[in-house]
Amino acid sequence: MNEQSRNGVIIFDTTLRDGEQAPGCSMTLREKLRIASALRDLRVDIIEAGFTAASPGDFESVEAIAGQIEGPVICGLARCHPGDIEQTWQAVKGAARSRIHVFVATSPIHREYKLNIDRDTLLKRAVESVHMARELCTDVEFSAEDASRTEPEFLLEVITAVLEAGATTINLPDTVGYSVPAEYAELIRHIRDHVPGIDKAILSVHCHDDLGMAVANSLAAVSAGARQIECTINGIGERAGNCALEEVVMALKTRTGFFGVDTAIDTRKLHSTSRLVSSVTGMQVPRNKAIVGDNAFAHEAGIHQHGMLKHASTYEIMRPEDVGISRSNLVLGKHSGRHAFRERVGELGFELDEIELNRAFAQFKRLADRKKEMFDADIESIIVNADSTSDGPWRIQELHSTAGTGAICGAAICLQHEDGKTINESAVGDGPVEACFLALEAATGISMDLKHFKVHSVTIGEDSQGDVVVTVEYNGRSYRGHGVSLDIVEASALAYLEVINRVCRHAAVEVNRAAENIATN
């Protein structure tokens, strides 16, 4: 199946656009490329790589993904403004297959309070925008933002007009998660029954989860004839989030007999992709999350366990292997060889080249020397966090901390800069983590405002690794850092240093842009 098939459901992933708009989920270019590569391997049909007019960084990331990621259609979002559309085309035109996605809000509340325009003006703007996009790109999607709260007769008028103007996909977003399944399905049927030539386009849905019905609404729309679902990994996105890709895909796969359609997704990579996105964004997957949560295939009640021993189908409607989760959780040890490690990495749904594999295996061996037991989650953590601290300019060479009841808590740290210089600093604080943060700030000259600090265990057991996520504010911008280690203080330091490195990289980018502008002018 490909993205133009009417017999299957097209998976339009907007993790890098709508997902990134969730508070605290902003990503660097390197992180976006990692996720885009994972989405390609997952076999999503379309990657919405970003909203190019949002910032120079968004434009850069969309352009990079278009130039480097082969396979899926690469899509960029644009408002119904000529400048947005031209900018989006410049970003996506390097892709083998590209799409321009234009949108305008059509509901009365948006027309009055957000756009301050009447129906005729909006209709004219939508038609002109689709015309312009089609002159640049053969694949054009039009979204009627807040379609579920738009007057049905006006929505028909808009869709008919943009279809005639050349839109190849028509998207009907439930932008604020207001609709319910029966109502949303009826909207899809109404459009199919009353828009001339609608069968020439793909009908798409984009559902938010404000009332907890994003997946249910999307599935109801499929039953009514929609053939594209816009969704995100782990359901991340603005407010309560979006339709969760892993949930809607597995619902279609598990209940193919009911829905009569499936997707092209390689479901064995759902778990690994979920863990990558969780690591990059700092948004932890709840244990009871459907499909990819730690408890999704766990059985504790005695009657459930008895049934599972008799036959797995008594309490499991899917096999954990189908989503990339192994039945055997306790895996390799410090005496395991490289070949066994490679096999396990593949079973967990990851594809590494030789350089990546060698680096991960070396880290695995170091960790195995310190831990009693190694679990799948430890290997996943090694892989998804491989780049978290490798993008300098600063690296930790040594770290020592002290703490105790009634004692002064302190930290001493030695940092190495990419230019070769080393700096030693020490500090005291209310605890070893604060002392460590103060020492890092003193060493780098960057003082930040810590907003959030989260820590959780990667696996079970007293020797589990600690996974730390910090969110800080610096010069009015929010940054997120992530670190993993058996030592919570070290994990905290790695997370804080990642933020410092991001601040340094951002400053360097701004200096380069300023220099380019001066040279251009």
Task: Provide key terms for this protein.
521 residues; 3-stranded antiparallel sheet; 4 domains; alpha/beta; TIM Barrel; 17 helices
CATH class of the largest domain: Alpha Beta
SS class: alpha/beta
- What's the CATH topology label of the largest domain? TIM Barrel
The CATH superfamily of the largest domain is known as Aldolase class I
CATH level-two architecture of the largest domain? Alpha-Beta Barrel
User: What amount of the residues lies in strands?
Assistant: 15-25%
Number of strands: 14
* Rg calculated over all Cα atoms: 25 Å
Q: How many discrete structural domains?
A: 4
> In this structure, how is the largest beta sheet organized?
8 strands, parallel, barrel
Count of DSSP-assigned helices: 17
- Stretches where pLDDT falls below 50 for ≥5 residues? 1-5, 299-309
Please give the share of residues in helix. 40-55%
Mean pLDDT: 90
Quick one: overall form?
globular
Distance between the termini: 49 Å
Strand order, main sheet: write it out.
1-2-3-4-5-6-7-8
Structure description:
The strands form three sheets. This protein has an eight-stranded parallel barrel with strand order 1-2-3-4-5-6-7-8, surrounded by eight helices. A three-stranded antiparallel sheet has the order 9-10-11. It starts with 9 loop residues before the first strand and ends with a helix. The N terminus is likely disordered. It has four domains: 272 residues, Alpha-Beta Barrel (TIM Barrel), CATH 3.20.20.70; 26 residues, no CATH class; 59 residues; 116 residues, Double Stranded RNA Binding Domain (2-Layer Sandwich), CATH 3.30.160. Strand 5, helix 6 and strand 6 form a beta-alpha-beta unit. 42% of the residues lie in helices and 19% in strands. Helix 8 packs across helix 9. The radius of gyration is 25 Å and the shape is globular. The chain has 17 helices and 14 strands. It has 521 residues and is α/β, with parallel strands linked by helices.
